[in-house]
Amino acid sequence: MNQKRDLDDLFLSCRKGDLIQVQYLVQEKEVDLNVRDQWDSTPLYYACLCGHKEVVEYLLASGARCEANTFDGERCVYGALDDVIRQILLNYKVVTSHTMRRNLYDEFLRRLLEGVHSDVTFIVHGTKFHVHKCILSARSSYFCSKFEGRWKNRKIIDTSHQLINHNAFKSLIQFLYTGRLETNINDVDIVLRLANQCLLPKLKTELEDQLKKVTAFESSKPNLCNKVKTLTIESPELVSDLAQDLGVLAVQAVPPALRDWVGADDLPLLPSAPLHLVDVCFVVDGHTFLCHKVFFALRSEYFKALLADHFCEAEQSSDGMPRIHVRGVHPQVFAAIVHYVYTNQVITELPERLLLELLTTADMYLLPGLQRACGQVLANRLSVLNVLTQLRLARFFNLQQLENQCYSFIASHIEKMKDMPELQELILQDADEVEGRQETDTIPIIDDIRYHVTLAVQDMSSMSEAQDKLRIIDDLLEELGLDA
Fold first, then answer.
1. What is the pLDDT of residues 208-219, one digit of tens each?
2. Residue 375 gets which letter from DSSP?
3. What is the distance between the alpha carbons of residues 389 and 396, in angstroms, rounded to a whole number?
4. Does the CA dihedral 216-218-223-224 come out positive or negative?
5. Per the confidence metrics, is the pTM higher than 0.85?
6. Residues 189, 173: contact at Cβ < 8 Å?
């Protein structure tokens, strides 16, 4: 519900030109910049349409897509309110999927295409594609059937058929790995043929629908200078399908006895990962996790080194597969690690004890995204009794979002918390840590609480409430013998 409200707020703020709110939603709430509404329009399109120059510049700099010769790019240029906006867009025509800001998981999905730890190579008219059987099998029943049958033991597969070309095949692989597809408009028919052969009906439908939109757009704009040359598919449903498919890999990697810990208690009979697709085993307190090197090596520098045997912790099983014994980690926590590595999702139902262990383990395994996700779960559990503990935790692990939410919570509940010894102790510690502090110097925690008190002001009623809270803070400082 909150996510939908944030998305609606982003669209509204772009139409109004509220740059501060747009920045807040993008940076603090991490709202997707390239989301679409029911009219297939993006936040950038509305900012262009309404002529909000600063918002347009900010969105572009933050990763909003506006590639030249694409449907979205040409639509923004055509719909821009004035030539100033239009020129800004044209200057950003070099923005591509390779230079856009991404979150860590998007970057991971892109890096999968680099072929690290690949176990099969496709050759299409001389062009090599180093890919992973586990991913292709998870994404397409056609590939799954082939790798269980005639391609099972093959390392090189030549598919140089006259009806396909390497660019179209590249687009198909891009889609299977990322849920997103870019293809030259001239290759659409070939990609459609591949989608049909690989049993990808949703991709086929999306391609056909997008092609119709482009045709209708160009027909309605007879004076359009630049024709659409690139077709882009980025459907939330297709991205969701990708997450679901990789989620199946995650469940298969976890021993059946632990699957209820990763939210898969409804899939206890799902078979474990096929051994011919597995290339590493992690053994945790007697539990065997059947995994895939590429996911761990690309998600974490720790696992990358571990899989390279830099720590000398791997042993070879009789079938030649590396077996790595993981020590000092609870099996349920490692199951949550595996789930995150594959899906980028944290198990929100974990008890707080295990959640804190997961946070610490994520720090050890160099998984900052998981740390932030744990921080968000903790933020959703804030109470008067635990907020100060979580604030210290946020500071220790440098979880900025959790820290800000702790300050916001304290600001909202300052009346109840002002007499708490733990809060007073934290204020005094912050005051002591300000090097060479003078009597009138600011105190970090007080500055942040005051900021969030004033941030909540929306009308006269909330202004009066904020003034009362600021007086409480002043009284508290006076009681502690501080002036800030």
1. 998 888 888 777
2. H
3. 11
4. positive
5. no
6. no
